[in-house]
């Protein structure tokens, strides 16, 4: 359930040094999902420490401007 996800996310964030991030749903699209710059920095450090994920930080972003998604 969404409630269980939100509860688990809050626990994980606090245990991993990101207590100022608030998650209200699993989509990431809700404007009430918020994080501080500090917490995002902590998340970036955790990602950089994981080789499979750190490769994503080196990839160039792809642009969807002008493209259609049917």
Q: What is the overall shape?
A: globular
Q: Strand content of the residues, in percent? A: under 5%
Order of helices and strands: HHH
Helix content: 40-55%
Uncertain parts: none
Mean pLDDT: 87
- In DSSP terms (H or I, runs of 4 or more residues), the helix count works out at 3
Please describe what this structure looks like.
- The chain is mostly helical.
- It is built from three helices and no strands.
- The longest helix is centred in the N-terminal third of the chain and has 14 residues, at 2-15.
- The protein is globular.
- The relative contact order is 0.12.
Give structural attributes.
single chain; about 70 residues; mainly alpha; about 50% helix; globular
Short synopsis of the structure:
This protein is mostly helical and 70 residues long. The protein contains three helices and no strands.
Layout of helices and strands:
Elements: H1 2-15, H2 37-48, H3 51-58
């Amino acid at each position: 359930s969404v409630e269980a996800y939100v509860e688990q996310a809050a626990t994980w964030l606090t245990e991993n040094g990101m207590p100022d991030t608030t998650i209200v749903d699993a989509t990431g699209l809700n404007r009430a999902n918020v994080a501080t710059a500090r917490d995002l920095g902590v998340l970036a450090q955790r990602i950089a420490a994981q080789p499979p994920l750190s490769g994503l930080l080196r990839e160039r972003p792809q642009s969807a401007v002008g493209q259609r998604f049917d």
